[in-house]
Amino acid sequence: MLKKHSYHVAVMGATGVVGQEMVSILEERKFPISKLSLFASERSAGTTVSFCDEEIVVSELTENVFAGIDIVLGATDSALSKKISPHAVSAGAVVIDNSSAFRMDTKVPLIVPEVNGNQIATHHGIIANPNCSAAPLVMALKPLHDAAVLRRVIVTTFQSVSGTGIGAMDELMDQTRAILSFQDVKRNVYKEQIAFNCIVNWDADSFTGFTEEETKIMEETRKILNLPALAITATTIRVPVFRSHSESVNIELQKKLTPNEARAILSMMPGVVVLDDPSRGIYPTPLGVAGQDDVYLGRIREDRSVLNGLHLWVVGDNLRKGAALNAVQIAEHLIGGV
Ligand SMILES: NC(=O)c1ccc[n+]([C@@H]2O[C@H](COP(=O)([O-])OP(=O)(O)OC[C@H]3O[C@@H](n4cnc5c(N)ncnc54)[C@H](OP(=O)(O)O)[C@@H]3O)[C@@H](O)[C@H]2O)c1
To answer: What is the predicted pLDDT for the residue at 201?
Structure first.
């Protein structure tokens, strides 16, 4: 645990969607900061980002910027993080990384504080933040596993474009505008049109047929829950929604839980809100959950097609619990603030 009154914190990738969210969450949660350093590519060097009534100038990220920095919040792509993060660690910082670079490294803890925060102390300088669909998923699975033991999980995601970064948000906006004004649709970030469509990020392994995103959800869920043999399968779909990922989750348990028992168990989980009233048509939507810290669960119902089956609908803001909030919560644990 780092122990000081206040900390020199840095954000790598401070101009991206996750980086910007990190800066505002650090301010909102009054993280004890003596100095905030912001880094991005040379394209953004010299631009400013607001933090606590200050305009902080963004600097170019290089291997040599880390002297004196206590905590680095990483929000760059994984290739860059893999190259740069070891330099931050050598300079004495702890890196909390949002990319996938270190998530499955056996020496790196992969953390959702409410689920496995007790593993933060095992770090050797790098702590990984999970994939933006895995984080809300484990928030729902952990209390059900503790109560009735998971046997199998089938998850299908409906992921917003902000999960692919700032460029994908612009692409959805630009394509929507183009279609509504009868102009040609341009594609840069996604191979297929995302506006008015549902698509797969087509990087599938030609042997297994699973995409990288699907593999991440399956592997990371097993690692975070410390259930290496958990039977889990995933399908990930990108939908024309700006913010928040939704997931249809089908679970088989060793012990039967009624929907009411499941609601009661899930309601006790910190960071989870059960919003589930079928009689009034109340359930969480991505629009309703955007900007919220908690993971919202609804449509909890019995799956009678299998023994001890349950269905749930999980919605979490990918930029908050799926990324920036979870990273700041890890930092709070690290300094012993929670
Ligand atoms: N978006 C999500 O919901 C989410 C959730 C969990 C994890 N993640 C992960 O978090 C990371 C950031 O994602 P994002 O969605 O925020 O992406 P993004 O919006 O595209 O932002 C990328 C950031 O990286 C910076 N960058 C790019 N090339 C750089 C370089 N050569 N040197 C220094 N900085 C560079 C960009 O700076 P410029 O502005 O200067 O280009 C920008 O600040 C990714 O690894 C992603 O997989 C994202």
So the answer is: 79
